[in-house]
Amino acid sequence: MSTIFWIILAGAVLTFLTRIGGHLVLSRFDHVHPRVEVALNAVPAAVLTTLVAPAIATADWRGVIALVFAGLVSLRFNALTMFLAGAAMIILLRQLPV
Prior knowledge:
Layout: H1 3-27, H2 34-58, H3 61-74, H4 79-94
């Protein structure tokens, strides 16, 4: 087996353990403090920001347009629609001659 396989497997196991660990810790509490709940609700937005910020910093004009378009779509539709619209936009823009 290659090294890449073991790296992917280790990443999958560690990701699973991290997620199940958080669930096990929170399941021990009868109720969660409202501040903790607000912080946990902010995690998806923080993760998405860490993915989008480097992409927009290194993108050419087509990438920036696709990210802005995906952001506008996200204001009206769900996440899957936003991802599909952003992917379609970047595919279409990459077909244009430079």
